[in-house]
Amino acid sequence: MYFDSFEAFLAMGKHAAYVWSAYGLGLLILSLNVILPMLNKRKVVAKQQARLRREHNKKRATSQ
Amino acid sequence: MWTWFHKLSSPKWFYQISGRWLPWIACAAVLFLTAGLIMALAYAPADYQQGNSFRIMYIHVPSAILAQSCYMMMAVAGGIVLIWRIKLAEMALKCIAPFGASITFLALVTGGIWGYPTWGTWWVWDARGTSMLILLFLYFGVIALQSAISTASGAARAGSLLALVGLVNIPIIKYSVEWWNTLHQPATFKLTEKPSMPVEMWSPLLVMVIAFYLVFGVVLILRLRNEILEREHKTNWVRKLIETPIESSTTSVEKTSATKRGA
Amino acid sequence: MIGRELLIAARYPAEILNPLVFFLMVVALFPLGISPEPEFLSLIAGPVIWIAALLALMLSLDSLFKNDFDDGSLEQLLISPSPIAMMVLVKVITHWFTTVFPIILLAPVLALMLHLPAEGYGALFLTLLLGTPTISLIGGIGAALTVGLHRGGVLLSLIVLPLFIPILVFSASAIEAANMGMLYNPQLAILAAMLLLALLAAPFATAFALKISINN
Fold this sequence. Notes:
Radius of gyration of chain C: 18 Å
Largest interface: A-B, 31 and 44 residues
Low-confidence stretches of chain C: none
Radius of gyration of chain B: 22 Å
Shape of chain C: globular
Oligomer: heterotrimer
């Protein structure tokens, strides 16, 4: 462990703002890259399900 | 070998196998990222000149490395698209570009955040920063071109060609920027070059680089799976997959599609 | 074949004149926007003329294949047995002669207005002569990729501008070296090498891009 105390860890010498903003932005960008496709998956599946349902209904309508 | 290659490049096969790999890769990514962050933030010693702002390197360097290799991978995918017309490579091209652009952006911004406390300026037109900025422009070009073309395979082929042209140009751009930079050397900011980094300093870097690549793997798989569902929606196996509750096990997909083909 | 293309180009004088006027206007913006101080202008004259020429060229690239695409003759050329890369090369050369060459001829006049040092004229002329064909050739790839798209103009600039950076860098540094009375042969040699490379590779890439665009 490099730092003596948790306060020293948070303070990062005099560079708290720089270090923490860089790490925060890094984590933000990485996690956005992971989360957005996961959210998008739901949209994709819903879209395709709606399409299937439409096709299904159309088939039923024409067969009647 | 050839059949293996084709099997590997079939979207259905990839969808199934990636579903099995994804949890493991995701776990490894979280593990490495956590370990890397702890090592980088708490255990690595501060630089004797830069102090703790030196820790920004553990975000900046991995993202810069990944930014460049992402472009390389995108161009390789582009080459595969143009030579073999493999659908999975078309999708990969589309999926890599946004991640690459965002990671290039991260490298640029963290470079600025690191630069200010260290050299007193957010941005210098030095060779590395400038070529990184141009790399970001190249990514934007590929993304914009792809999104402007309506057909998926047309977009992929146009994007592939552009990515390859960019790849040919990258060494020339690098060389020209270095030439330009030595001519217009601003007040010399030089990274305090030390002959050997102690092991406590470079080991977090290694872990972080691996973690960034693993995250890239996770993002690529996630995006590819969405892309496959979207582009293969007419195939039977995707229909079956969509009809059954979304997260059905991969084996049932195999079975249903097998019976379908048999019937 | 070049003659035929030149004849067609002569039918649309506006396509020759517009880039030229654009070039003139962009150059005029700099003294108005920054400073009319001769000493200051002489410093930026070379790069300003280069950037203005680059922009004018790029805007005109949009129309490189547009007319042929719109009337369907491009499609016919692509299925005809004649080598497409050759046809592309002819088109690019014609385009360069009709739109870029006038710009190069006008450049010394603008250099005069921007107080470019006398030593810089040779370098300005030579770099434009060696650099702009490369830009036309590379830009042709972009024009071919965007030919079928609505609103392809901005997109074209977006995808090809980063690729022009090396040419701008070496040209500007050649002019700067000339202004200081130094030799600028290395820069010219590099520009010539890039032109050769572009001549060898770009027509084929453009032909390929045209095929992609037509098949979309």
